[in-house]
Design brief:
By secondary structure, the protein is α+β, with helices and mostly antiparallel strands. It is built from 4 helices and 11 strands.
Length: about 220
């Protein structure tokens, strides 16, 4: 048996997205972004590069190297559901550096009731490993390691209590009303959840309220 350790599968932020998905209703869209400025640019060994950029041995470039992260996370978040169709667009932006494989790719997975867009690249200026999960009642931005941003919609019935998560750095943004976004201009509340022990005198999570945020629509 071969076990592949996908680093993002262990991020606390990703597990926060998984834990909150049912409270936000059915998942409708997943957008995953994984990439960096390129394996040669970050100093990967020649032995590894020979395999990674071989269209026969590896099969593709950034398409496989970074597309796999979003594919794994989408499968997990959607309870193993298989996509009804898979399409992709690839590009070769640095043919002098990677002449045999793609260095940028966008993959679209169409599910019954949901879409996952996977962005994979060797052309970005910095390292990116993040995923956004959108449900009917809210969304979660799962950044690298333990950074998460949770946004709840204006609709009634959406869970609005920030969830202390130990060392998880998290912002929970919710509206201060129960009205539709289309007619609401009232401020929203922003909760900053700090690691345990750095908040109130009881050692719990510290909560910051910021009324400067307003409904998105």
């Amino acid at each position: 048996m071969v076990l592949t350790n996908y680093e993002t599968s262990w991020y606390a932020s990703v597990h926060e997205a998984y834990a909150r998905r049912e409270g936000f209703g059915p998942i409708r869209r997943i957008v995953a972004r994984h990439g960096h400025k390129g394996p040669r640019e970050i100093g990967c060994s020649e032995e590894f590069l020979d395999w990674l950029t071989d269209p026969e041995a590896n099969g593709a470039g950034a398409l496989f190297d970074f597309g796999c992260y979003g594919a794994v996370l989408s499968t997990w978040l959607l309870d193993g559901q298989r996509p009804e169709s898979v399409t992709a667009v690839t590009a070769q932006n640095k043919p002098d550096v990677y002449p045999h494989v793609d260095d940028d790719a966008t993959i679209v997975l169409a599910y019954d009731g949901a879409v996952a867009v996977l962005q994979a690249s060797w052309c970005w200026t910095h390292d990116v490993k993040e995923i956004d999960v959108f449900g009917e009642g809210g969304s979660v931005h799962a950044g690298r390691w333990n950074d998460a941003v949770v946004r709840a919609g204006c609709a009634a019935g959406v869970a609005r209590t920030p969830r202390p998560a130990g060392a998880l750095r998290q912002r929970v943004v919710v509206p201060a009303c129960g009205r539709s976004r289309r007619v609401c201009g009232r401020p929203a509340l922003e909760f900053g959840v700090q690691p345990a022990g750095r908040g109130d005198s009881r050692g719990g999570a510290g909560i910051r309220r910021d009324r400067s945020k307003r409904c998105a629509r």
